[in-house]
Predict the structure.
Amino acid sequence: MNARPVASDRELEQILELQQANLARNLSPQDAAAQGFVTVEHSFDVLRRMHAIAPSIVAMESEELAGYALVMPVECRAFVPILEPMFQRLETLKERFYVMGQICIARPWRGRGVFDLLYDAHRVWLSGSYDSTITEVATRNTRSMRAHLRVGFTVLERYRDATDEWAVLRWDWLKPSRSASAG
């Protein structure tokens, strides 16, 4: 299995298929609690426009998508209006950052290191252009919260909106990573 930038429209389509299967509204409450979920739904056009600015990262085993982690530079903020409040919160950051727009691992590959592989690839492919990556996780998505904190993200802020309580998380690439210091 390897993790690398998206290389084709077919991979963008695979991202959308995996996203649909893991949207909170498409899961039972029990599955969402146990397995995690994604909240934001993208269109093919939005993914393609994001990809043109900075390709997202996919983990592939042969031709099969094991997982993805979307790259969303600040220049993409208008593409997904529901994320505008998060981008407004980040306007005071004085560093080079992008938003990791969403991460999702396909069920057969969960618990097999794909999450870490995707984030390691983010650091490899993007650390030359950015000092950090920011993401936002629903605090009730405990699986995702634990995984992000384990990789090295720290909580910048928690807030509540009309739909959920959110944690804004930051992974500072100017500090050694936990996985690098552990190995």
